[in-house]
Amino acid sequence: DTGVSQDPRHKITKRGQNVTFRCDPISEHNRLYWYRQTLGQGPEFLTYFQNEAQLEKSRLLSDRFSAERPKGSFSTLEIQRTEQGDSAMYLCASSRTGGRNTEAFFGQGTRLTVV
Amino acid sequence: TQLLEQSPQFLSIQEGENLTVYCNSSSVFSSLQWYRQEPGEGPVLLVTVVTGGEVKKLKRLTFQFGDARKDSSLHITAAQPGDTGLYLCAGARGSNYQLIWGAGTKLIIKP
Questions:
Q1: Would you state the pLDDT for residue A5?
Q2: B1 pLDDT exceeds 70?
């Protein structure tokens, strides 16, 4: 197993365009998380899935953001009508079913730059 | 307002010195994790502490969870340039053990 994989690593897009990122979690992990991280800050929770069910979505997340995990394996995060404020590192993490000592493992992230 | 406060935010020291990074909260956590992140990469898990008062060692790194499970510390002995990075703490809380993140401590070890 190669760990959590994210694609692409970098994305530059023009304001107003739509972008989609992909995350492939560790194969036996049924939880998948999306985070956003800006420079000098810790990761900010966006949403998480348990298998194919999206169980929680941050209230800070605008309607332009949507995530799917159709078969409980890989996940996609789409941002519609991108804005310059969307520029950030988008991180995906996966874990086994949550428990008090559940450990999350992160991918290398997708760096989004909106110009 | 950060639920998890990390201090210091930035630390630059010489190789060989010791240092301690703190992670504090008024909330109780089920567990607390420490991660190290390098520029352009995702965070890498270092350790998870679960029990109040627990101490875990990872080579020159010593992690402690507070007795009340509200705070934690990371102590590095004889720091080396390879320890340079962003150190993040994350506490698990709630019925779904959602992770709450600190803003990180940026550590630079000068040779």
A1: 96
A2: no
pLDDT of amino acid B109: 96
**Residue B19 · residue B108 · CB < 8 Å:** no
Reading the block at residue A105, the tokens are 């493992």
For residue B29, give the amino acid letter: F
**Cross-chain CB nearest to B97 (options A43, A99, A107):** A99
Mean pLDDT, contiguous 10-residue spans, chain A (115 residues): 89 98 94 90 89 87 92 94 96 81 86 97
Least confident of A61-65, B49-53, B80-84: A61-65
Spatial distance between the Cα atoms of A114 and A2, rounded to a whole number of angstroms: 30
Residue B111 tokens, joined: 């040779």
Distance CA B26, CA A43 (A): 20
In the stretch 45-104 of chain A, residues with CB closer than 8 A to chain B read 45, 48, 55-56, 89, 91, 93, 98-104
DSSP conformation class of B83:
G
User: Do the Cβ atoms of A101 and B99 come within 8 Å?
Assistant: no
A61 closest CA partner among A74, A50, A48, A72: A48
